[in-house]
Write a structure and sequence with these properties.
about 220 residues, alpha/beta, 8-stranded parallel β-barrel, two-stranded antiparallel ribbon, 7 helices, globular
């Protein structure tokens, strides 16, 4: 059965942008709880946004190098049931958190990345992003699309991220065939401020791209 590609808008910092994401039909909205990020938002402020989101919209808390206790605490404060984990966190910790949350394990296509590394997270969705020595997402750089496509056979649900915008997302979908795409800087007018017209163009471009088959986790 063919299903449409899901869309995640990340780095949302205010209620106005969150409403715009809902209006254009975004499936997931990401809120950054990494304090070093220019897109950081207080979990208590996120709670005010999450409380009025429609049930169909998945609110995602984004964490970097956070331990399980901190993730649970901030996720509870924010009211999010999905957590996106960057940095140094073990497969065991991800699996433990997956008992309570939908977990998105973020991996970057650096020189050490191998597609089969994603198999270490069988209870998690996997987000593939571009590598940057200092930043964790929102870099504007594209990831290694062939490596991301190769990872599809090891993952149950793959989200493609890294430098996507209305101009290249169709090509990225054709190259990788992900289950979902993630955009952040590609629809911004400034750091943490979404350009609503760019958001609409991005959504239109994704919907115009060919849908994928959400098949079994291990694909030939």
């Amino acid at each position: 059965m063919r299903e449409r590609i899901q869309i995640k808008i990340c780095g949302v910092t205010n209620a106005n942008d969150a409403r715009a994401c809902v209006e254009v039909g975004a499936d997931m909205i990401g809120f950054n709880f990494y304090q070093a990020s220019p897109r950081y938002i207080e979990p208590a402020n996120v709670r005010q946004i999450v409380d009025v989101l429609p049930a169909r919209t998945c609110a995602v808390g984004v964490f970097v190098d956070a331990d399980s206790a901190e993730i649970r605490k901030l996720a509870k404060t924010a009211g999010v049931r999905c957590v996106q984990l960057h940095g140094h966190i073990t497969p065991e910790s991800c699996g433990e958190l997956a008992r309570e949350f939908r977990v998105i394990r973020a991996l970057s296509t650096d020189t050490r990345f191998e597609p089969e590394h994603t198999a270490a997270f069988p209870r998690c969705d996997v987000l593939i992003d571009a590598y940057h020595p200092e930043l964790r997402g929102g870099t504007g750089q594209t990831c290694d699309w062939p490596a991301a496509r190769a990872a599809m056979r090891y993952t149950r649900f793959l989200i493609l991220s890294g430098g996507l915008n209305a101009g290249n997302v169709g090509q990225a979908i054709a190259a990788v065939t992900p289950h979902a795409v993630d955009v952040c800087s590609g629809i911004e007018s400034a750091l943490g401020v979404k350009d609503h017209r760019a958001l609409e163009r991005f959504i239109t471009a994704v919907r115009a791209a060919s849908p994928i088959t959400n098949a079994s986790p291990f694909r030939s």
